Amino acid sequence: MRDLPASPNAPIIVDLQRPIATATATATAADGRADVQRSAAELAERLPEALAPFAQLAYNYLWSWRPGGGALFEAIDARRFALCGKNPVRLLQEAPMPALRRAAEDPALLTRAQDLLTQVHAELDRPPAPGAVDPAHPVAFICAEYGIHPSLPIYSGGLGALAGDLVKEASDEAVPFVAVGLMYRTGYFRQRIDAAGWQHEYWLDTDPERLPAALVTTHEGRPLTVEVPIYDARVSARVWRTDVGRVPLFLLDTDCPENGALERWITGRLYVADAETRLAQYVLLGVGAVRALRAMGIEPGLLHLNEGHAALAPLELAAPALRDGEPLDAALAQARSRTAFTTHTPVPAGNDSYPAELVTRATGALAAELAIPVEELLALGRTHPGDQHEGFGVTQTALHLSHAANGVSRRHGEVARQMWNGLWPDRAAAEVPIGHVTNGVHVPTWLGAPMHALFDRHLGEGWLAHAADPDVWAAVEQIPDEELWAARSLQRAELIAFVRERSTIDRLGRGDVREYVQAAERAFDPSVLTIGFARRVATYKRLDLLSRDVDWTLSLLGGERPIQVVLGGKAHPRDEDAKRTLRAVFELKSKALVGERVVFLDDYDLDSAAWLVRGCDVWLNLPRPPLEASGTSGMKSAVNGGLQLSVLDGWWAEACEPGVNGWGLPGEIEFDHQAQDQRDADALHRLLSDEVLPAFYDRDERGLPVRWLALMRASLRTLAPRFSAARMLGEYIQGPYRMREGCGTPRRR
Ligand SMILES: *Cc1c(COP(=O)(O)O)cnc(C)c1O
């Protein structure tokens, strides 16, 4: 769609220097580009004239992964930027006039903003990358959550962070790409821990008008609306567009006047607990995504269903063929050849499934509209299509409706082939057509400034554009010890400053005793080995391996060669076991030293994750194998020179060279959990005291930990290129994004 000539009656835009998104302006398609430009122009009108470039920058998240982007907005009013959750649109809407005037009179700042804006324009002007994806028919990536930036609270954790990273990488590589999700009005829950260690959940409202997003309107100036029948309502959804570099992210929103209260609530919360609403979300996400794209003039070449939530999307893709009277099988075969599916969940219970009766109620009207018999639709969601008693699983549906399916690490691919073997009963597990594309992380997003500057000096010009090339990273072997250690120590020091401030506030908010609050102010020593353990709190992640032997823990914290630990993570609101695990950790807090050497940061999110992965020396992960599909936080740590101490599961099982680029704990499946936990706790103790501590604390005459530095180099060299989003996107383009006929996908019965 991008290369069509501009239509004579395209809306006229107020030209501010130059509108930000004209580069690929299209024709008749009302795809929200003009709406984003208008929003930026309106924002600029309220600012001193010289700040117009800031208004344009604010409406494209590209600033967030360009060096110096965040600093530009901080320069206007750092405190307010933090108060606004680093949302630049809100900052510019709310900053007091004196701050704006000061910025407008700072020529150096204005030059920096103009430079970045020039970069943004250059980025948008680049032609699409030649290759597998036709610019006229982009890849449409569909996901229930996106972790683009802390200021866009429509994510919960790993799945969203991965989706955000892939979208940014697609932009960096100029791959024709659009993304679709939901605009949750209250996002995911926020977490507060009380003084006793119990988690409390609360939700904050998001006002889309204050986000870097614009409501997509038609040429008549009315909000573009799509309708999807769900239960017995015709649900209307509007579409917000937010620009993530070159990639538009379209977010469906049912909170509009045409809808009743129940329908408005569909996009109320991410992973809403109520099953009926959740199912409604998935119908909307799948069917609504394709309808919205077509309403905007975008006919995707391929759908990438990231997790099963959007599994119904291929049905809508098939709608025109069905309307033309094509037989169902033929219409679905075509849709299947244009659909790729990524599964992320290695536990059967994590794969959403709904009773047939509920699905019939939710999709009956839709099925009638599409002329698909409801029984056929239900069969798509079953492992055994003929079994009337089986529920409707979104993963089964996605497997039935895609030409390519993959897990997210080599090991997860194996697990998924076993898990879904039932769909291909006449094949051995190894022959099940589910492959793997191991996850990767968007390097510019996660890399700390000191390490970024270090790589700029040593990896050669343009290294970032070749982040997946192992030859680029071979140059880390030449970085002098002093410089490598200085960058690492600087990132640790930045983390410690952050931890002190945040944990003091967290503890004050919890009503902790003064002494414990003050311990936070002293918390953390910049010369002490810093270990991070931050991830969703679920029992299988085994946070308790750290605290089960209290004497051991205390001796490590207070030893001659001490450690300090930063913890973070949310427990699912209904996971009482996980909440108890969290509470058990807090029971240690009355012990001397624990207050200063162990910190739990409330409300783990993209922002705190960034500080942690940049600053921690060791990234710890203790899942019970094989339950870690991939894990990506360790990759974020690795590109920053952090070392992995993890169970050989998920991505680490294919990456670890024990004692060379990090350390591994056994990854075998064990049915006796108690024995496994004891064995793994012992292994953890041994590794920490025999390998990790000496490597960190043994210093040469210059005071440098040469063994540690050798491990860091090996880790960077072997892990950074392989676990970059660039490598991941390349594999998607070479594999699943190539359209194919059926190739071994299951028949519908
Ligand atoms: C990267 C990331 C995750 C995923 O981390 P895991 O390694 O899968 O635990 C979760 N939450 C946030 C905020 C992240 O940035």
Report on the architecture of this protein.
The chain is of the alpha/beta class and 749 residues long. It has 29 helices and 20 strands. The strands form four sheets. Strands 1, 2, 5, 6, 7, 8, 9, 10, 13 and 14 form a ten-stranded mixed beta sheet that branches. It has a six-stranded parallel beta sheet with strand order 17-16-15-18-19-20, with helices on both faces. A two-stranded antiparallel ribbon has the order 3-4. β6 and β7 form a beta hairpin. Pyridoxal-5'-phosphate (PLP) is lined by residues 157-158, 161, 535, 604-606, 609, 631-634, 636.
Detail the topology: elements first, then pairings.
Elements: H1 33-45, H2 52-58, H3 69-83, H4 88-94, H5 97-104, H6 107-125, E1 139-142, H7 158-172, E2 177-182, E3 190-193, E4 199-202, E5 214-215, E6 225-230, E7 233-244, E8 247-253, H8 261-264, H9 275-295, E9 302-306, H10 313-317, H11 319-323, H12 328-337, E10 339-342, E11 353-354, H13 356-370, H14 374-380, E12 392-393, H15 394-400, E13 404-407, H16 410-419, E14 435-436, H17 443-446, H18 449-458, H19 470-474, H20 481-510, H21 514-522, E15 529-534, H22 550-558, E16 563-568, H23 576-586, H24 594-597, E17 598-601, H25 606-615, E18 618-621, H26 633-639, E19 643-647, E20 662-665, H27 673-697, H28 706-719, H29 725-734
Parallel strand pairs: 1-2, 1-9, 2-8, 9-10, 10-13, 13-14, 15-16, 15-18, 16-17, 18-19, 19-20
Antiparallel strand pairs: 3-4, 5-7, 6-7, 7-8, 11-12
The structure holds pyridoxal-5'-phosphate.
